[in-house]
Amino acid sequence: MGQPILIDNDALLKLARYGLLNESIALFGCAPDEVRVLATAKYSLFPARNHLRLCKDEESAARLTEFLKVSTPLDATLADPELLDALNAVQNIDAGESLLFAVGATEKNTLVVTGDKRSLAALCSNDSVAQVFSALAGRVVSMEVLFLYLIERQFVYVQQCVRSKPEADKALSIAFGVSISADFNSVREGLTSYIRHLQNITGGLLYTLPT
User: Fold this and answer.
1) Which of 132, 82, 92 is nearest to 112 (CA)?
2) Between 117-124 and 95-106, two packed helices, what is the crossing angle to 10 degrees?
């Protein structure tokens, strides 16, 4: 059994589009049923009026649908109500991120995978949620951190996945090469630069994979 993962809708969508959901959770020795997603994910990610508005193509939608079937809806009762209220009051932290952060702060053995940098910046800059920041320190996985570890294991495949969907994440697209493929060292340097910038904003919040 691996370390349980709490994952937000933004990261779910991007990883489904890239076709890297299973590869990503495998980094942490985690099975799909150990991944907890927001209970509203299937409604938010598949708008009723346009099923493919976010997924863009049927293949990505199918990947995401299958993953949501085997993952576990997040139990909101696990969150400390006081922490959740404090997070909900912070600008730039939406309801979904608030729930993920609150549960993550309460469940100390979990990791939080998120693609929402605004929420991370807000979490680290508001004294009212300092307790949450402290509890989550070292347990938040940004997309750049995740991909830095992915390329160490299967660089060529991961690069192909990212470059096949250049619109999915601008920062990742630039790091992996837009007009031509970037080499391994260039990609690693690019991702590391993004991570340093995020570390300057978030302090000790970001996760470091054990070597």
Assistant:
1) 132
2) 60
- Write out the two tokens for 23: 């590869």
pTM for the model stands at 0.95
Which residue has 């979990």 as its token pair?
Answer: 110
In order of 92, 189, 198, the CA distances from 192 in angstroms are 25, 5, 10
Q: Give how far Cα 28 sits from Cα of 78, 88, 175, Å.
A: 22, 29, 23
Place of tokens 């890297």: 20
Identify the pLDDT of residue 1.
Answer: 61
Residue 187 pLDDT exceeds 80: yes
Q: How far apart are CA 144 and CA 149, in angstroms?
A: 9
Q: What is the CA radius of gyration of the chain?
A: 16
